[in-house]
Amino acid sequence: MDNNDIIFLETLENLKIEVHVIGYKTEGESIIFLISDTKLNVNYYCGIVDFYENKDENLIKEFLTFLKIDKFDFCCWTHPHYDHCKGFDRIFQDNLIKNETIFYLPEGIYRTNLDIINPATEGIDFMKTINNLFSKNKNLGSLSVVKSEKIRNITMKKFKTVTESIDLSIDVVSPYSEQIRMDLDGNHKKKEPNIYSIGFILSFGKNFKIFLSGDMEDETLELLNKKCFDGVKIIKAPHHGSEGTKKIIQHIKEMDKKPYVVSTVYRRRKELPTPLMVSDYKNHCEKFICTGSLDLKNRENEEKENYGIASFYYYLNNDSVIKYGTSGNTKVY
User: Fold this and answer.
1) Radius of gyration in angstroms for the set of CA atoms belonging to the chain, rounded to a whole number
2) Which domain holds residue 34?
3) What is the CATH number of the domain that holds 233?
4) Which end of the chain has less neighbouring CB within 10 Å, N or C?
5) How many domains does the chain have?
6) pTM, 2 dp
7) Which of 57-61, 270-274, 283-287, 318-322 has the lowest mean pLDDT?
8) How far is residue 72 from each of residues 15, 193, 270, measured CA to CA in Å?
9) Cis status of the peptide bond prior to 273, with omega within 30 of 0
10) What CA–CA distance (Å, rounded) separates 186 from 195?
């Protein structure tokens, strides 16, 4: 971290971090996080993990306007699945990506046989478009390790003396390179984009940690240990709560305090999250929050919108409390 990554402020007491998990009625997931000043109404750092939006919708664009986000400092495409990247080119077209934006991508993203994994024609064409867009960026990162780095330091500085500081840091979680290469070479037991998925443990100071899991499944989750989850307050359910992510329940059981768990839905070809995973989450977490209704009988009446948003807020001046809010089809269980 150099001085360009340090923000100097007169006071830290008005700082807050917010995380918004956005899901759609059938498929689609995006996560937005930002650090802002509640008094000055200024954003200091903005990030996005995955992007999904239909061409005839402007939900995220309108939401970004509401949040006063005009650029992203951080951007990640967790894995090459259509429900995590459809419409990603819009944030490039809208000039929300700058030369200084930091990117994270899964390993192997540029290999041509990656296209074979998702055979849908528009999916192939779109991934080629995204590959081209990402390849032009200077700050591109592709990882195959668990790596921790401080990406932004916010420091209170008065009269040239540093009196207090707080770091925004990210632990990057990604699969072993061997696992990726086996899949690219056709030697893995399944051709499945989720094997590529990377995730993050986002930390803001000592008291706010959230696990953004992408669509990673047990093959990657079992690589993690208890230390990774120490202090995590919020978990984004891996792979929309599929039963291929049971290892996350064991991690939650070993945590000192129950976290909030939030899941998006996936309803094309299968129903996610599954009832079994929902039951396990509800038994072992503080609250289970889903961007869609889990009541099959009343879903049509309960889901009036095409989207659901789960929002979490952490205020530095009240470091023991995390608030949450819901909109659209999101339900708390």
Assistant:
1) 19
2) 3-332
3) 3.60.15.10
4) N
5) 1
6) 0.86
7) 318-322
8) 18, 25, 33
9) yes
10) 13
